[in-house]
Write a sequence for this structure.
């Protein structure tokens, strides 16, 4: 099943993980509840959905989720 995310959804996830925007840049950084350092670049001015390949990269590499599905479930619980 395909999961769809907007940049606003990614911002909500980052905020819930304790990440903060670094000044006026697109970079969000923080230490999550599990103690892992996280860094993510959010292109908030872009409208529309995040592509599936980029969503997979953000979920697994940047935010530390096991899969896009896990990130989707986390978003729905917020």
């Amino acid at each position: 099943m395909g999961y769809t995310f907007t940049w606003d959804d990614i911002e909500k996830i980052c905020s819930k993980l304790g990440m903060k925007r670094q000044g006026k840049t697109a970079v969000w950084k923080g230490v999550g509840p599990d103690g892992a350092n996280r860094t993510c670049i959010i292109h908030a001015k872009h409208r529309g959905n995040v592509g599936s390949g980029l969503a997979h990269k953000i979920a697994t590499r940047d935010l530390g989720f096991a899969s896009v599905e896990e990130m989707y479930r986390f978003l729905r619980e917020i």
About this structure: The longest strand covers residues 27-31. DSSP finds three helices and three strands in the chain. The helical segments are 7-16, 52-62, 68-77. The first helix runs from residue 7 to 16.
